Amino acid sequence: MHWILGGHGKSDHTRDGYRPENLVKDITRFIEDIISETAVLFGYSAGGMMALLVGSKLPGMIKALIIGDSPLDIEHHVTQVGTNEMKNHWTSLREIAGKPMEDLVVALKGKLDPADIKYSAKTLSQVDPKVLDYHADGLSGEFFSCFDTDYMFQRITFPVLVLRGDLSCGGVVTDEEVEYIKSLISDVSVVKNEDEGHLPGFRSWNITQLIRAVSLFLESQ
After folding, report:
1. At 25, which helix (H) or strand (E)?
2. Domains in the chain and their CATH numbers?
3. pTM of the model
4. Assign residue 45 a region: left if phi > 0, alpha if psi is -120 to 50, beta otherwise?
5. What are the E-state strand segments in the chain?
6. Which residues contact 91 (CB under 8 A, 6 or more apart)?
7. CA-based angle 123:124:130, to the nearest 5?
8. In angstroms, rounded to a whole number, what is the distance separating the alpha carbons of residues 110 and 121?
């Protein structure tokens, strides 16, 4: 089943805001009430962070976890996304989020690689601008305050696959973060997608490495 976080895609917008705690409540209820059996969680980027948080809350109901190039050193990540340059970036995205795709295609010309424009325009057209409030308003530290990675990793007793992007192409997960998670979780596999960035193959559809890594991991469970 494909879960789309609130405020993204065709999921509903919410009046309660988009703090991770609120988003995770919906997912945990879904697993407990609808799936009601052990599940494999797969989340990419921010979705991987949500999946990690869910896994730490429901360790008995999770069979395995796949994290796709999600930051694992939260303190370092907050520093990165909280710079003035990044706040300006989030603000500019908030100003155009939710607008019709055809308008966004025009707005993004000259700002992105031509191959990425339609993908990014479609994604942004389906985002509630309020999703970006915390980052745009310089409140990333508050947004990520519920992510106590030491505590979360120590509660995880199931196998974990970490998919890394290539740092030279925009990947997020560092060697230090890999060693960190390995020090706290006994059953961790790490696969690096060479020559692919933070969203390996999602835009180019060159997803062979991704499918192979996930398939081999699931077959081993």
Report:
1. helix 20-30
2. 20-74+146-219 (3.40.50.1820), 83-137 (no CATH)
3. 0.88
4. left
5. 39-44, 62-68, 160-165, 188-193
6. 132, 136
7. 125
8. 13
CB contact at 8 A, 217 and 188 = no
Comparing CA positions, the residue from 213, 170, 169 lying closest to residue 66 is: 213
Total length of the chain:
221
- 57 with 152: CB under 8 angstroms? no
182-213 pLDDT, tens digit each: 999 999 999 988 887 787 666 667 788 888 99
pLDDT of 121 over the 70 cut:
yes
Q: What percent of the chain has pLDDT over 90?
A: 51
Q: What are the Cα distances from residue 196, in Å, to 51, 79, 122, 178, 210?
A: 22, 24, 21, 18, 10
Sheet (strand 62-68) strand order: 39-44, 62-68, 160-165, 188-193
Long-range contacts of 33-39 (CB under 8 A, 24+ apart): 35/1, 35/61, 37/61, 38/62, 38/63, 39/63
Dig out the tokens for 58 from the structure: 């429901």
Cα separations in angstroms, 109 against 2, 75, 92, 93, 115 = 30, 33, 14, 14, 11
Q: Are 148 and 118 in contact (CB under 8 A)?
A: no
Structure-token match 């295609």, residue found: 105
CB contact at 8 A, 121 and 108:
yes
